């Protein structure tokens, strides 16, 4: 199969599946296996080193690595964070290495760490993500390189991370525990969310292509013809959680992010809700995954894509759309307000 056909099929699946697709990696680039394997192996060695020396040696003079300050904006994090509620509800059960806006770092204990991370990022961004975005341009009949020209370059505005779960015993009374209707009798380790990205690329560490999602689930809404789709997607009683069918080093899981959903007015591509649960099939603490969030430049305007497949309601407005910086801050603020009301 020609490479662009692989990406075109992926984009078609994004529509059919409601916001996610599986992209085979073995046919894209012969060097992909080395880039992926080296990054995961380096990360596992680094996590083992942290476990041996303790968190206190991760900061200060002679530190093994830069330690993330949880009081700073998570959108600009670069460094290491331990699994703790202090690092946010999404990191209560995950430790991880985070890289933002083209930044990298090396480790005293592994001189190849930075090189391995760079190779992995360039494959995930330049080959996988760029290939998907070019296919979206073809699907919507947009000008070539539209996303790069209007929203990019995204290589120095995106964020990605490698995260490993650390779970001893889930506190069922924690404020971070989702409502019972969302848990569906399973331990929710990463709460339900959509990604603030154009698209997200997820690769879960496992040999080849392995059955199941290793706890990764997507919410599939079941809508009747007389139900408004957006309303349906907010009601858990009108849908179900489904496990991702496959994962591994030879397959990338592609998610539509809330940015692309906003730019298409949800008419072509919709951001899909997803979460991670402890499915009890393997040791959850062995779960290691890499996720790339392809983000626009902070000053890029969030204007509806000029595609004939997107209905533009009403007359054209002379008011400039918000920049990604403003839009992202507003979305994050509204999200936090909603969670505070639920706690009250």
- Proportion of strand residues: 15-25%
Sum up the overall morphology in one term. globular
Number of distinct helices: 8
Give the helix/strand class.
Answer: alpha+beta
Multimerization status: single chain
Amount of helix = 25-40%
Mean pLDDT: 85
H/E series, N to C? HEHEEHHEHEEEEHEEEHEEH
Ends distance: 54 Å
Radius of gyration: 20 Å
Give a verbal description of the structure.
Residues 170-184, 224-236 and 335-344 have low confidence and may be disordered. Strands 1-11-6-13-4-3-2 form a 7-stranded antiparallel β-sheet. It has a 4-stranded antiparallel β-sheet with strand order 5-12-8-9, with no helix packed on it. The chain has a two-stranded antiparallel ribbon with strand order 7-10. It is an alpha+beta fold. The longest helix is centred in the middle third of the chain and has 28 residues, at 113-140. It contains 8 helices and 13 strands. It has helices spanning 3-16, 32-53, 113-140, 146-151, 180-183, 229-232, 258-263, 324-343, and strands at residues 20-24, 79-81, 94-100, 159-165, 187-193, 199-204, 210-211, 216-221, 239-243, 246-247, 251-256, 274-278, 288-293.
Question: Key features?
Answer:
seven-stranded antiparallel beta sheet, 8 helices, 19% strand, alpha+beta, 344 residues
């Amino acid at each position: 199969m020609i490479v662009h056909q692989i990406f075109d099929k992926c984009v078609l699946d994004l529509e059919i599946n409601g916001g996610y697709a599986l992209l085979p990696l073995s046919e894209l680039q012969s060097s992909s296996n080395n880039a992926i394997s080296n990054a995961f192996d380096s990360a596992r060695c680094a996590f083992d080193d942290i476990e041996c020396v303790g968190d206190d040696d991760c900061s200060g003079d002679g530190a093994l690595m830069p330690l993330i300050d949880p009081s700073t904006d998570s959108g600009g994090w670069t460094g290491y964070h331990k699994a703790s509620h202090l690092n946010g509800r999404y990191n209560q059960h995950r430790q991880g290495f985070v890289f933002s806006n083209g930044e990298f770092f090396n480790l005293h204990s592994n001189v190849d760490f930075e090189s391995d991370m760079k190779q992995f990022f360039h494959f995930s961004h330049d080959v996988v993500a760029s290939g998907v975005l070019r296919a979206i341009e073809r699907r919507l009949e947009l000008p070539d390189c539209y996303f790069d020209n209007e929203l990019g370059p995204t290589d120095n505005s995106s964020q990605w991370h490698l995260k490993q779960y650390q779970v001893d015993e889930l506190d069922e009374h924690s404020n971070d525990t989702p409502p019972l209707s969302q848990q569906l009798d399973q331990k929710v380790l990463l709460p339900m969310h959509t990604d603030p990205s154009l698209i997200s690329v997820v690769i879960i560490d496992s040999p080849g292509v392995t059955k199941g999602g290793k706890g990764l689930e997507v919410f599939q809404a079941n809508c009747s013809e007389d139900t408004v789709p957006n309303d349906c997607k907010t009601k858990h009683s009108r849908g179900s959680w489904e496990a991702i069918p496959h994962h591994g080093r030879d397959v990338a899981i592609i998610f539509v992010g809330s940015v692309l959903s906003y730019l298409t007015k949800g008419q072509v591509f919709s951001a899909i809700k997803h979460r991670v649960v402890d499915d009890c099939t393997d040791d959850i603490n062995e779960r290691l995954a890499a996720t790339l969030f392809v983000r626009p430049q902070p000053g890029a305007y969030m204007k509806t894509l000029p595609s004939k497949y997107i209905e533009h309601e009403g007359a054209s407005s002379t008011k400039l759309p918000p920049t990604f910086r403003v839009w992202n801050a507003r979305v994050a603020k509204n999200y936090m307000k909603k969670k505070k009301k639920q706690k009250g």
